[in-house]
Amino acid sequence: NNRYEIKSGGIGFKGVRIHRGNNNGHTEGCILVGYKCAGDEIYESVGAEKDLLELLIDAKQKEFELIVKNS
Q1: What φ, ψ does residue 48 adopt, rounded to 5°?
Q2: Residue 42, class by beta-carbon neighbours within 10 Å (0-12 exposed, 13-18 middle, 19+ buried)?
Q3: Strand partners, 38
């Protein structure tokens, strides 16, 4: 199965999208990635998305844990 599941409080979400973006206007509930944030703004999201994709490709055949932090 190539679909990942994210669990939060016993609730599972499959097919969650994670991508670059700089504010709430760039998402409809997806997780936005970035290296810095200030208030409601996310910065350096292009590099963070690229680096995350490389990590996920490397981990494709391995079990891993992804921690999502709301900052």
Answers
A1: -65, -40
A2: buried
A3: 41
